[in-house]
Design a protein that fits this description.
By secondary structure, the protein is of the alpha+beta class.
Length: 273
């Protein structure tokens, strides 16, 4: 290296796959939170839950909720690389929690036929429509989107052929059970209490994901100034098992050195003035 050299070292590392203890148990938990968050009743029984058509029509709400889920998914996908998985999951869970609380409060005011007690078009009568859209926006950007991303990131490659089919089977089975039993339990414990229980599930998910799910934010490039090093290059992780191999070559105004060992692959260019 020369004293007059002026260069910058740019280092970028390939992110290794994060590891979690008991990945099968983790994804059984995530699948349960996925199905018990409220997505099944709102996505399947909207026409049975929102029978009062004086303010809005349930079929229109279904289309609006699908649009909210798509928009939420796009926003969540854009936010993941910038903020990381956990903040996106937390934001989505908070929105689902808020939606379930609003729906629980709304159903506590309606009669047995789910008719809104106030005049059509009032704030109360619009509450279920707004809450449903809030839920699907949060679900689409949060767990509904990130669940399958985590399934690809956190499952070890050597166990993926076993864990992924088991988690998929459990997810589909739980969906079938929730859809088939929701209206039965709604008649027994009441719709208000069911949405309150779903709000509790979202609180449970907030604590669980904070304690169990590792952050998988994409690694960023770091700019490091070379203090008199006069070199710049790229560091890339390597799984090649060799002791050391180096190659040095001089070019006009530059010295090129390539080093490969068991842990790194480094290309260094020393500029001479």
């Amino acid at each position: 290296n020369t004293e007059d050299s002026d260069s910058t070292m740019i280092t970028s590392c390939q992110q290794t796959k994060p590891k979690v203890e008991r990945p099968l148990l983790l994804f059984f938990y995530l699948a349960a939170m996925y199905m018990l968050s409220g997505v099944c009743p709102l996505g399947t029984f909207a026409e049975m839950l929102f029978t009062d058509e004086s303010t809005f029509v349930a079929s229109d709400l279904i289309l609006a909720s699908l649009a909210c889920q798509i928009v939420g998914g796009l926003v969540g996908a854009a936010a993941i690389d910038r903020l990381g998985r956990k903040p996106v999951l937390q934001a989505g869970a908070w929105l689902c929690l808020l939606a379930n609380i609003l729906l629980s409060l709304y159903f506590s005011t309606v009669d047995d036929h789910h008719n809104c007690p106030t005049r059509p078009g009032s704030v109360l009568c619009w509450t279920p429509a707004v809450a449903t859209c809030i839920f699907f926006f949060g679900f689409g950007g949060g767990l509904g989107n990130v669940f399958f991303v985590l399934l690809g990131e956190l499952v070890p490659e050597e166990s993926s052929s076993t864990i992924v089919p088991l988690v998929t089977f459990f997810l589909n089975t739980l969906q079938f059970v929730v859809i088939k039993t929701f209206m039965y339990f709604a008649n027994i414990v009441g719709t208000t209490n069911l949405f309150f229980i779903q709000a509790g599930m979202n609180i449970f998910f907030l604590f669980g994901q904070a304690a169990w799910i590792p952050e998988t934010k994409a690694a960023k490039e770091e700019d490091l100034s070379g203090s008199g090093s006069g070199s710049y290059g790229t560091f890339v992780g390597s799984n090649v098992s060799v002791n050391r191999y180096s190659l040095a070559r001089e070019r006009r105004g530059e010295d090129l050195e390539i080093v490969l060992n068991s842990t790194e692959f480094v290309v260094t260019i020393n500029r001479r003035e």
